[in-house]
Design goal:
Distance between the termini: 41 Å
Helix content: over 70%
Number of domains: 1
Shape: globular
Radius of gyration: 15 Å
CATH superfamily: Hemerythrin-like
Number of helices: 5
CATH class: Mainly Alpha
CATH topology: Four Helix Bundle (Hemerythrin (Met), subunit A)
Strand content: under 5%
C-alpha cells in the first residue's frame, strides 16, 4: 500500500514542480515498499532525487528573489540532515529506520507541499515564472 497516492490536491500548477513532486512520491513509496535487501539502494535513489529536487527549488527561489527563501531552504536542509543520519543507520544494517523515515516524510511532504511549496508556486506564477526558463528570465 502506498504512503502517498498522487492526487489533484498535490498539484500546484507549476509543471516542473509538479513533475518533480510526482517523482518524489514514487521514490518515497518505493522506499516504503521495497524488499529489505533493496532498502539501501532505494534510499540512495530517493536521497539523490531529494537533493536535486531541493536544489531546483532553491535555484528558482534565488532567481525570483523569493522573500521567505531562508525559511524554505532551512526546512529542506533539516530534511536532508535527517536523511544523511538515516543513511548511516541503513549502512549499519538498521533497515527499519528507512521505513520509519518514509512514513514520516510522507506526512511532512503533504504539509510542506500544501504550505511552503504552494506559496512558492503562487509567487512563481505571479512573477510569470512557472517554467524554469521563465524563472531564469524573471
Amino acid at each position: 500500500m502506498s504512503l502517498i497516492d498522487w492526487s489533484d490536491a498535490l498539484e500546484l500548477g507549476v509543471d516542473q514542480m509538479d513533475s518533480t513532486h510526482r517523482e518524489f512520491v514514487v521514490l518515497l513509496n518505493a522506499l516504503a515498499e521495497v524488499p529489505e535487501g533493496q532498502v539501501l539502494s532505494a534510499f540512495d535513489a530517493f536521497y539523490a532525487h531529494t537533493v536535486a529536487h531541493f536544489d531546483q527549488e532553491a535555484g528558482w527561489m534565488q532567481t525570483i528573489s523569493f522573500p521567505p527563501i531562508h525559511c524554505h531552504t532551512a526546512e529542506h536542509e533539516g530534511v536532508l540532515e535527517v536523511m544523511r543520519e538515516v543513511r548511516g543507520h541503513l549502512a549499519a544494517g538498521d533497515i527499519n529506520v528507512g521505513r520509519v523515515l518514509a512514513r514520516e516524510l510522507a506526512i511532512w511532504f503533504r504539509d510542506h507541499a500544501a504550505t511552503m511549496d504552494a506559496v512558492l508556486a503562487q509567487y512563481m506564477k505571479a512573477r510569470g515564472a512557472e517554467s524554469p526558463s521563465a524563472a531564469k528570465a524573471a
